[in-house]
UniProtKB/TrEMBL annotation:
Cofactors required: Zn(2+)
Coiled coil: none
PANTHER family associated with the record: SORBITOL DEHYDROGENASE
Organism per entry: Roseospira visakhapatnamensis
UniProt keyword terms in alphabetical order: Metal-binding, Oxidoreductase, Zinc
Species lineage: Bacteria, Pseudomonadati, Pseudomonadota, Alphaproteobacteria, Rhodospirillales
EC number: 1.1.1.9
Gene Ontology molecular function: any one: zinc ion binding
Annotated ranges, domain Enoyl reductase (ER): 9-276
PROSITE patterns in alphabetical order: ADH_ZINC
Family in the record: Belongs to the zinc-containing alcohol dehydrogenase family.
Name by which UniProt lists this protein: D-xylulose reductase
Length: 285
């Protein structure tokens, strides 16, 4: 099976009815192709279409090939200031932007993000771009925390040696965070997330635990906390590209290495090492 679902490239040819793209355009591609006639698509939730065909999700092949044929409506021109390497990062960034949109961020909010992996970092960037004054990020990987700690609005918490609840209380004068965005996929944050959120706050679930988790419904109700889940993204790729093009979000520090296609095996071997300071490795054709 051909892998790959995060990509950028150059338009080789367009269909007769395509007017917004032309050969030679630098582009990135949204990898989920829905049934454009489905109820979900017509309601604007095309990412939830049960028939969606998503690159590198069996049995659909991915994009690690010299060429792909892709719907023009899911293909986006890169701003001149955005490199191909950054363009290939729009897919995970879109997950963060979608989560930030679901969070209904208000200017000056303080957010907690659990998980400083690739998706967690994208959520942090999107939350800050969306108006958060501060994001408190918790993880067990010091190397990942060091990467995101470069942002002045970020407070990092090493969950191995620090108490997240104590830090949140200190940073919010005991009130609790306005937002809680879970991006680790671990079940542990679910045990305390309600306690960390202020009355009337919001919780957005981005990570997916491997098994069902419990929820204190009464505690959620007593604080009137809004809880929502997210799945991939919809209608945010243009916004993600604008944030990159304007310089509001800089993803270059998260590109840990680049390999030629001929060295793809070495790239996958590197990825399999799970180096603690690696975020994204890229292959160029």
């Amino acid at each position: 099976m051909i892998l790959g679902h995060e990509a950028s490239g150059v338009v080789d040819a367009v269909g007769a009815d395509v007017t917004h793209l032309r050969p030679g355009d630098r582009v990135c591609m949204e990898p989920g192709i829905p049934d454009f006639r489905s109820v979900e698509t017509l309601r604007g939730m095309y990412h939830l279409d049960p028939a969606v065909r998503f690159w590198a999700t069996p049995p659909i092949h991915g994009c690690l090939t010299p060429t792909v044929v892709h719907p023009a409506s899911l293909t986006y021109r890169l701003p001149d200031s955005v490199s191909f390497a950054e363009g290939a990062m729009v897919e995970p960034l879109a997950i963060g932007v979608h989560a930030a949109a679901k969070a209904n961020i208000r200017p000056g909010d303080i957010a907690v993000v659990t998980g400083a992996g690739t998706i967690g970092m994208m959520v942090v960037h999107a939350a800050l771009a969306g108006g958060c004054a501060e994001v408190i990020v918790s993880d067990v990987a010091a190397e990942k925390l060091a990467l995101i700690d470069r942002l002045p609005e970020v407070t990092t918490v090493d969950a191995r040696s620090q108490d997240l609840a104590k830090v949140v209380a200190e940073r919010t004068d005991g009130r609790g965070a306005d937002l809680f965005l879970e991006a680790s996929g671990s079940s542990k944050p679910h045990e305390t997330m309600i306690d960390l959120v202020c009355p009337g706050g919001r919780i957005v679930l981005v990570g997916m635990p491997a098994a069902p988790v419990g929820l204190d419904v009464v505690a959620l109700q007593a604080k009137e906390i809004a809880l929502t889940g997210t799945f991939r993204y919809a209608n945010v790729w243009d916004r993600a590209l604008k944030l990159l093009g304007s310089g509001r979000i800089d993803l270059k520090p998260l590109i840990s290495g680049a390999f030629d296609f001929a060295d793809s095996v070495a790239a996958f071997r590197r990825a399999a090492e799970h180096r603690p300071d690696d975020v994204k490795l890229q292959i160029s054709l």
